[in-house]
Amino acid sequence: MTQLSGIQKLLKSFSYAIEGMMHTLNTQRNMRIHFGVAFLAMILALFLDLSKTEIILLFFSIVLVVAAELFNTAIEAVVDLVTRDYHPLAKTAKDVAAAAVLLTAGHAVIVGFFVFADKIVPLHLRHWDATGGMAVYVAFIPLGLLVLLLISWRAYLRFKRNHT
Ligand SMILES: Nc1ncnc2c1ncn2[C@@H]1O[C@H](COP(=O)(O)OP(=O)(O)OP(=O)(O)O)[C@@H](O)[C@H]1O
């Protein structure tokens, strides 16, 4: 067998990675949704006057969601390889991986709102707060805190139920 050169090895590893991406796109409906939304966001970004930071944030959010979906698919494949039978650990692995995707998708929606809202909302509607800016952004902080507290509380209740 001929020895592959360094560059050939590199190209081969790229082709495996692209294969992984294609597999995920072909098999995961959620990945197709992420791609669709990312495509629309990029088209929208083309027509709006976004700053460099906003564009970076947008790309970062998209990459985060896509990467999480790729890891989720990899974990699902490994779990299915190990067992097709019901197993609580299989459930934990898949549920936790799915939670990571949900988190990144929620983050992307919030970033999308932050980036696009005040570019899309007509100017006269933006003056409903004293500063003329979108003070609604600040509302995300208590909302985020509330979500964290609710999830922690539910997890605590479940932990208590399982340990009494
Ligand atoms: N082997 C298993 N044992 C226990 N629970 C499982 C097992 N496989 C799946 N589950 C449960 O079913 C849920 C859905 O699993 P599934 O493999 O269909 O994932 P999915 O997110 O629907 O994947 P896909 O995107 O491929 O449809 C998991 O999140 C988990 O709660």
Automatic annotation (TrEMBL):
A divalent metal cation binds at E76. GO terms for molecular function: ATP binding; kinase activity; metal ion binding. The active site is at E69 (proton acceptor). Pfam families: DAGK_prokar (PF01219). Its cofactor is Mg(2+). Substrate binds at E69. GO terms for biological process: phospholipid biosynthetic process. It is a multi-pass membrane protein. Mn(2+), Zn(2+), Cd(2+) and Co(2+) support activity to lesser extents. It is found in: Cell membrane. It comes from the Bacteria. The chain crosses the membrane at residues 31-49, 55-75, 96-116, 136-157. GO terms for cellular component: plasma membrane. Signal peptide: none annotated. ATP binds at Y16, E76, K94, D95. Keywords: ATP-binding, Cell membrane, Kinase, Lipid biosynthesis, Lipid metabolism, Magnesium, Membrane, Metal-binding, Nucleotide-binding, Phospholipid biosynthesis, Phospholipid metabolism, Transferase, Transmembrane, Transmembrane helix. Belongs to the bacterial diacylglycerol kinase family. This is Diacylglycerol kinase. It comes from Tumebacillus permanentifrigoris.
